[in-house]
Amino acid sequence: MNIATKRWLPHTVSAVALLVLLYPLAWLLATSLKPADEVMTSLDLWPSHLEWSNYTTALDGVSGVTVTQLLGNTLLIAGGAVLGNVLSCSLAAYAFARLRFRMSKVMFAFMVATLMLPHHVVLIPQYIIFNRLGLVDSYWPLILPKFLATEAFFVFLIVQFMRGLPRELEESARIDGCGPFRTYWSITLPLARPALITTAIFTFIWTWNDFFTQMIYLFAPEKYTITLALSSFVDQSSTSAYGPMFAMSVISVLPIVLFFFVFQRYLVQGMATSGLKG
Fold first, then answer.
1. Which of 234, 216, 218 is CA-nearest to residue 74?
2. How many other CB atoms are there within 10 angstroms of residue 17's CB atom?
3. What would you measure as the largest C-alpha separation in the chain, in angstroms?
4. What angle in degrees, to the nearest 10, is found between the helix axes of 104-113 and 67-98?
5. How far apart (Å, rounded) are the C-alpha atoms in residues 270 and 41?
6. CB-count burial class (<10 Å; 0-12, 13-18, 19+) for 12
7. pLDDT per residue over 50-102, tens digit each?
8. Dihedral (CA of 199, 205, 207, 211) sign
């Protein structure tokens, strides 16, 4: 194998792999512009003619709720979840990584063990609690738990990152009179920005794409998120709404793609420096 082949072969393989990975997105975009009779019958990637009315119907929303309101509802839940996870998980991680207290190792091990606990196991007890508090059919069950450091994965990720930070900076802050919280807020938190942005990216994507939990707690159509609205398209008029459903799918994917491209370099940096290397 000559030098030129060795140089271009990895790029060729990467380009082919990229095309394979991007094909579902290309198919989604093309299908969102297909007429109703071609969505499930035609195997061609490109439609015979562009059906822009699919996007018009998608923008009208479902059950009298426009797509703008649906996106706003989803953004409110995702934004609250991001804020809650970043604040609460970083506080819990700072306590495990930097503070010394009784049974800290046991509590940290117990926290990590909850990673193996299926979400469906705690769903029913949580629902009973929120139902007795009168918070069902509101956004509180989807946002409030994020402010209680319930995501063990993100706590573990930030702990691994904070353990790699030099302790000399915090010791200097204590000499200057800073307490634990001031040290956390002014010294540790800014240095842990890559891990915090990684937490924010994953939280945003997982919350935006969540369907099951939102279906359990949200009943009123005006409180629906974009994922619940997608399922409503099929329920409304069966196969005739597949075109608008794919059009709304494209609309729902765009915020995630933009969010990821804006913060992707922080995602790589955070994963590479937080003990989660491949």
1. 218
2. 10
3. 73
4. 150
5. 45
6. exposed
7. 888 888 888 888 878 888 999 999 999 999 999 999 999 999 999 999 888 88
8. negative
